[in-house]
Give the backbone structure.
Amino acid sequence: MDLPAPQLAALVAVVDHGTFEAAARELHVTASAVSQRIRALESAVGQVLVRRASPCTATPAGATLVRLGRAQALLQAEARTALEPDEGRRTELGLAVNADSLATWFRDVLAEAATWDDTVLRLEVEDQAHSHELLRRGETLAAVTSDPEPVQGCSVEPLGTMRYLAAAAPALLERHLSRGAPDWGRMPVVAFNAKDTLQHDLLAEVGVVTGREPPTHRVPTSTDFLEAVTLSLGWGMVPETQLLPLEAAGRLVRLRPDRPVDVPLHWQRWRVDSLLLGRVTEVVRRAASTHLRR
């Protein structure tokens, strides 16, 4: 089966940019040329590769070829940089990471990447329970994920665990005490987004009936989530590393100090012989070993 690089590049561009016209601008060709390349690729594999919608997305077969196209582009970019080191080229690395990691231990990775003059990072922020889907669709080369099962074509290794604790501002807890204990059925909650189940898992554990949960605010950035909890908007599950200094300052208190929630994290990456991907893997491994629990 012949899978020419220009056709794979057209597929990747369509998926990345959402339309044939935007892909054409990226590739410096006409939209008609992009369409012809996609049709030729679909004819070669005998399957539809792109859902013609707004935006365009890859079918499952298309996602497989998107991964191949990205791998080819990565290795070609590395080869060009090695052969022409004085050209100042930078190779893009797409990585998926959950917001709490990005706000805490993953900052060591960013600090290290700041010293690289041959790489640019494209970070996709996604919940750790869903980030592996970005790998499956070929949107990233590696991901911090809670899923220990490797995506096809990927390797996986454990990084450690992030510990979360239920916490609230003292003033909020004081307003919602019942017989000296938190009134879980009435005390407002802060959740990151619809995918964040940590708070409602705890509510179910303490006996709050589904459908009768207390008011739930959504604050979809890690820094602002923490600030919202600190400002008494509601209680939330806070990463231990963020909680400790605020607890020491008296701004947050633990609601269930004896019942932390440990979320295991893994590093999944494509199995390609890439120097850049190997380098970022080493940095991620080192940062995780410094900050995450074992």
Summary: Residues 94 and 140 are 5 Å apart (CA to CA). The radius of gyration is 23 Å. The first helix runs from residue 5 to 17. The chain has twelve helices and 13 strands.
